[in-house]
Write a structure and sequence with these properties.
- By secondary structure, this protein is α/β, with parallel strands linked by helices.
- The protein has ten helices and eight strands.
- α2 links the parallel β2 and β3.
- About 30% of the residues are buried.
- The structure holds uridine-5'-diphosphate and magnesium ion (MG).
């Protein structure tokens, strides 16, 4: 079997604390893959700087100077994890056969790469890295992340359970991915939609060795919310159910008011005025807010702005 021309794409946002370590571990591992004949000699590693405010880009420049196997891509500002991945992938699409994306902190065990490449050899076009054990994550991260996957699946989004953005894609898959024009690329949901033969590789999630997470709770919630609203109209349907329920309750209240009127019990009550008033205006607001959320999404997409802007590249 011929070795694959592999590109490893690594999005980096304020990763100065860990980049050297990541580089040295990866390059050793990469060389062993080359020696085993799993990947070609011209397989490379691409670091994408996602508008970091620290020395990340300087480090990437330095690495590019000392090692011709490294490609540096610098975005003009922070575009977010998913866009940084897309930039690294699309920029180099024509020069490689298959692509693996992995986080800069190597929390996703790089040793799974060999197994991924093997599966690709066996004919899988997409190989998902799936976290077997994630006891190294805090219980909070574990609970929120796992409920996120359950929620997504319940809403009909085809995410792979416990799979993040550690995956292999064949060039063919990447070409098709380019036809998904949305700016908010939620890759975990979109890649399964592209189809083709896929497989999984299990690994244990490791601890971040330096630096801190670039996904604080607020960013994590935003990411989850984007994932849900980009893929599922289920929240809108919930509003419909809620609306129907409200209507039925309103009918009962109307019947009660009419009944009171007919039997002569017509003392004007403050409670019976205020209660429905606040309740219904509240639920109206909620429904409007949710509809607004989707209209906002349409607005974002209709503008057709670029997903990312590459400012500079090194060793291309
Ligand atoms: N990242 C990025 N842009 C951002 C936020 C994060 O490129 O705006 C990168 C980050 O450098 C890392 C990966 O995305 O390589 C995942 O981030 P992190 O490890 O902080 O997330 P966690 O593993 O804690 O969910
Ligand atoms: Mg991480």
């Amino acid at each position: 079997m011929n070795p694959a021309r592999l590109l490893l794409v690594i999005p980096c946002y304020n990763e100065e604390a860990i980049l050297h370590l990541t580089y040295s571990k990866l390059s050793v591992y990469y060389n062993s893959l080359k020696q085993q004949g799993l990947i070609t000699e011209d397989s490379r590693i691409c670091f994408v700087n996602d508008g970091s405010r620290d020395k990340t880009w300087n480090i990437i420049e330095q690495l590019c100077q000392q090692d011709p196997n490294i490609i540096g891509v610098g975005l003009s500002r922070n575009f977010g994890h998913q866009s940084a991945i897309m930039a690294g992938l699309e920029k180099n699409m024509d020069s490689f056969d298959c692509f693996i994306t992995i986080d800069a902190d190597l929390q996703d065990d790089m040793n799974a790469i060999a197994a991924m490449v093997e599966k690709h050899r066996e004919g899988a076009m997409v190989v998902y890295g799936v976290r077997g054990d994630r006891s190294s994550d805090s219980w909070f991260k574990r609970v929120t992340a796992e409920s996120f996957y359950v929620l997504m699946q319940k809403m009909g989004v085809p995410v792979v359970f416990n799979h993040a953005d550690f995956r292999l894609m064949d060039r063919r898959v990447l070409q098709e991915l380019g036809n998904f024009k949305e700016i908010n690329m939620f890759l975990r949901g979109i890649v399964p939609l592209v189809g083709f033969r896929n497989d999984k590789v299990f690994y244990n999630r490791l601890e971040r060795e330096a630096g801190e997470t670039k996904y604080p709770l607020s960013k994590m919630l935003l990411f989850a919310w984007n994932g849900i609203t980009s893929f599922s109209t289920f929240p809108m349907r919930l509003v419909l159910y809620f609306g129907v329920f409200n209507f039925l309750v309103a009918m009962i209240i109307v019947a009660y008011i009419l009944f009171s009127y007919l039997v002569g019990y017509t003392v004007p009550g403050w409670t019976s005025t205020m209660l429905p008033l606040t309740f219904f205006s509240g639920s109206n607001m909620m429904a409007l807010g949710l509809i607004g959320e989707y209209i906002g999404k349409i607005y974002e997409e209709v503008k057709g702005r670029p997903r990312y802007i590459i400012e500079k590249t090194l060793n291309e």
